Amino acid sequence: MPATETVDAILRGLPGPVTLYPSRRRLILILFGCAVFDAIGIKMVADGAPSGWPGLIFFGLCTISAAGALLPGAVSLKVDQDGFQETRLFRPRGSRWQDVSGFGWGAIGASKFVVYDDVNLAGRAFTMIKLIAMLNIVTTGKNAGLANTYGLSAADLARVMTQWRERALALLPRA
Question: What pTM value is reported for the model?
């Protein structure tokens, strides 16, 4: 199905909920790539090279994470009339449409992803989440982002999120 039709089909789901899932093909490629680098680290350590440990540990964690993401229900994005909930390795985190704005897409290297501003991150005390938000602002101009594009291009997912938000906010009762 062409991307425009996919985006339109998702937007017809309002008020929702509509749940999007990541590309399994992409997750399998990531898992395979991590496993290859993990194997290189194992070979280096087995050959007595201590410099293999950092790569072995890093790519070992990446391999476990990628394998976990392939489990049913581990990763998803649910959008509805009230907001959206992103589940990352079985840990859901939601935002209300009133609290987010400015959906767009950013890139770091070849990786493209959806970015946005979340008012709840701006006023937080200095924590790891606040540090990540500050780094996001430096790299993308926005303080938050989605971890996956859920089978769409980053531009298409940003368009879905923007239009869904606009339509959902228009349905809210006026005070």
Answer: 0.83
Q: What is the DSSP letter of 123?
A: T
Of residues 86 and 147, more confidently modeled: 86
Report yes or no: 86 and 92 within 8 Å, Cβ to Cβ.
yes
Residue 143 three-state SS: coil
Which residues 6+ apart lie within 8 Å of 165 measured at CB?
A: 97, 100, 101, 103
Q: What is the C-alpha to C-alpha distance for residues 10 and 84, in angstroms, rounded to an integer?
A: 13
Whether residue 77 contacts residue 85, with contact meaning beta carbons closer than 8 Å, is answered with: yes
pLDDT score of 128: 67
Q: Are 142 and 117 in contact (CB under 8 A)?
A: yes
Element (H, E) at 151: none
Mean of per-residue pLDDT scores for the chain: 89
